[in-house]
# Entry
Amino acid sequence: MLDNDQLLHIQKEAFPEMERRYRTRLINALSGFKSLNLLGTVSTEGVTNLSVLSSVVHLGANPALMGFIMRPVSVTRDSYNNIMATGYFTFNHVLESFYQNAHQASARYPSEVSEFSATDLTAVYSDRIKAPYVRESKVRIGLAFREQLNIEANNTILMVGEVVEIFCPEECLQEDGYLDIEQAGTVTVSGLDSYHQTQRLARLSYAKPDQTLEVIS
# Structure
């Protein structure tokens, strides 16, 4: 028997009785601190688009794959349409200096309105991919669309992209390949609307059964 006497016990049978937004906030917070990115895309007509993402995941290093969850496309999703039309998208880490602008990008603007303009963020491009980057971001990743995996349980889609290029501060990339995103100023998010700075506890050595862990930095 678990010692849960001091903890609130919420069972799934209670979920349907919860107010919708209450339930959404609760379930969204369960995964803990999440990565925070702005998804950059552009339409074939040249209209740029930004979306806030807290679902970006690492999928593999060789090939270098990353993914994110796209909500059901039963309604118009400009980001999805742009990716399928152009084949490219970008991830842009959010900094303290513009996290409120990034949050505003979650508003539902008409398709003809660019979130870059609506949030006072700046679109910049590279020669490698068609999708826009956020100039204000210090860690930017350009990706080429590779595949989509349908999640039947809730009709969402795992969008998979291959990393084509990376932009980051040189001083944040360490000799062993570790990218110090805290030094770059990247912030994180919990739930739907709570933004956080980070403080590293330590980097630890590679774990092996017969070796004692060491603090790297």
About this structure: Residues 44 and 85 are 7 Å apart (CA to CA). The chain has a mean pLDDT of 95.
